[in-house]
Amino acid sequence: MGALIDLFVSFFKIGAFSFGGGYAMLPMIQEEVIEVHRWITMAEYIDILAIAEMTPGPIAINSATFLGYKVAGIAGSAVATLGVVLPSFIVMSFIFHFIFRFKSSPYVDWILKGIRSVVLGLIAVAAFSVAISTFVDIQSVLIAIVLFYLVAFRNFNPIYAIILAGVMGVVLF
Hints:
7 helices
């Protein structure tokens, strides 16, 4: 029961204090599950991110579901997912009632511009920490460079990129 409470509190905190979507939540998820609670290792976290990215749905919710399962089975999945979703649901329900009254306020616009900058920084931190743990040899760097080029500059389908990455992994490793 203690693990379920810890999962809920951890993911509720992540959901409540992260702005900008799933990628902005990744540094907080990493800190909670690896550094604070030591539920998984960095290598396991990278694997969970890969699975969460490949499955349909938001990466933060998928990550919470997979991490919850890893820690406490099906009940852990449900509790972690509820924890990460509930703060947004509460906030959005509250904001919905006031959005039309304040939508033209310059203060709201200024606040959102400030939050966007923080979100960019959080995404950059997540990308950097994942890159450090992922780029362990020249083959992994090569796969990343090739697929980044194909997806970013050649409009290569991300689904095919995932498949190609798997094939390149088998060939190069």
